[in-house]
Every structure is written in structure tokens, then in C-alpha cells.
Specification:
globular; 2% strand; mainly alpha; two-stranded antiparallel ribbon
């Protein structure tokens, strides 16, 4: 396997197994998902409220349950990424930082969508269908594109070559675009439109920080092949940018 010690957009690209870090990451994420379940089914939000002398509760159980399913699907995809798709080394600092981030948004979205801060439930409608379509579409774009690349690079004749096929033919960073789409749907489903700031900040972070840094790394690694690919392929949003 080709080795690389470059650092791109704050992430070290050195190849490495990092089994302890990945296992801790997966189990920590599972704990967050279980915490979401406890808040819904174990009346955890009521327990926390009682500790602070408040009458907190989940008022929109069906919506909270679907958000919990979204969190569980996201965890399954995370495990797939960690133990099958990801070949680079995972640092302990990355594990800690992302677990805090995941905990904040997964628990936060369950509470927002579950009606923890309102005293009524919201009937399911067209917006919910759109939101779930975006969630599953984004999940597909992210995971399927990574799997396609993994399978292509597994062929000995493709070793060290720049992958430009499959979903990556529509966007150089279709996996990042998929993440942005799925988080947009996830947040829309909460019916708390302030939460849309999350995918907005995520998209801006990808466009102005992660993608430029990664492009520098990929240019150094693949040279003219990547330069030619970048000339004929949209960078982030298919058919647009």
C-alpha cells in the first residue's frame, strides 16, 4: 500500500490501522446513540429536568423515534467507514473532538425534533418526506462513492492511480457533498430551522477549508492526473460548483 505522511486540512494522511482509536470512536458513538434512546424511552430528559427542578419531557415521540433511527443509521455507516473504508491513521485528538461534535448534534437534534423545547407535536407532512429523502440520498452519495473508490483501488493495476470514476465523476468531493445533503435533511426533520446552521457551516467548512487543503495533498500525490481531473470535474456540488 502506498504510504503518505502529508497533512491536509488538519488531518494527517499517514496510512495506519489505529485499532484502539477506531474501536474507542465506534463505541463512544454507540454510547451517544444509546443516550439518545434513553432520553426518549427511558424518560431521561424528564430525569434531567427533575434534577434541575424543571418539567422537561419529549412531547413529539414519533419524530424523536425517527431521529433516533437516523442516528443509528449514521452510526452503522460510521462503523463501515472506520473498519472498512478508512485506511489512514486516526489520532486520539480526532476521536475526542469528533465525539464531542457528534454528541452535541445527535443529542441536540433528538431534543429539538422531539419537542423538548415546545409543548406540542408536529404532524408529518411533505417537508418530512423531503427531509428523509435528503438524509438517505446524502448517506448514499457519501458511502456509495467511498465504496466504489475502495473496490476500484483494490485492483493491483490501479495501485497509486487517481480515482475519477463512479460518483466521483460528478464531483471531485462527492462524499463531502453527500454529508452536507444528509445533514440538511436531518436538520430539516427537526422543524427547528435554526439547526440548518449546522449543514451551512459544514458546507462552508468543506468548501473553504477541507477541500482546498485536500486538493493540495492530492495534487502532490497524483500530479498531472489530478490536475486534469480537476479541470473537467465540478469541485463540490455536481453540475454547479
Amino acid at each position: 500500500m502506498e504510504k503518505s505522511t502529508s497533512k491536509a486540512a488538519g488531518i494527517i494522511r499517514t496510512h495506519g490501522r489505529s485499532v484502539p482509536q477506531k474501536f474507542t470512536f465506534a463505541m463512544g458513538h454507540l454510547f451517544i446513540v444509546l443516550t439518545c434512546g434513553w432520553l426518549i424511552y427511558g424518560k431521561g430528559w424528564e430525569v434531567i429536568g427533575q434534577a434541575f427542578g424543571k418539567s422537561w419531557q419529549i412531547t413529539d415521540i414519533p419524530r424523536a423515534q425517527i431521529l433516533l433511527v437516523c442516528a443509528f443509521i449514521y452510526w452503522l455507516r460510521h462503523v463501515l467507514t472506520l473498519f472498512y473504508l478508512l485506511v489512514r491513521k486516526v489520532e486520539w485528538s480526532e476521536v475526542l473532538g469528533l465525539l464531542i461534535f457528534i454528541g452535541l448534534f445527535e443529542i441536540g437534534l433528538v431534543l429539538l425534533g422531539g419537542g423538548a423545547f415546545r409543548d406540542y407535536s408536529i404532524k408529518f407532512g411533505l417537508l418530512d418526506i423531503v427531509a428523509l429523502v435528503l438524509f438517505f440520498l446524502g448517506s448514499y452519495l457519501n458511502s456509495a462513492s467511498e465504496i466504489q473508490r475502495k473496490w476500484w483501488k483494490a485492483a493491483p493495476t490501479h495501485h497509486g492511480l487517481c480515482y475519477t470514476k463512479g460518483l466521483f465523476a460528478y464531483s471531485m468531493h462527492i462524499n463531502y457533498f453527500g454529508d452536507t445533503v444528509l445533514f440538511t435533511g436531518w436538520c430539516l426533520f427537526t422543524y427547528n430551522f435554526w439547526s440548518l446552521g449546522l449543514p451551512l457551516l459544514m458546507g462552508l467548512s468543506f468548501a473553504f477549508y477541507h477541500i482546498p487543503g485536500l486538493d493540495i495533498y492530492l495534487t502532490e500525490r497524483y500530479g498531472e492526473a489530478f490536475k486534469n481531473y480537476s479541470k473537467k470535474t465540478r469541485k463540490f456540488i455536481p453540475f454547479i460548483y
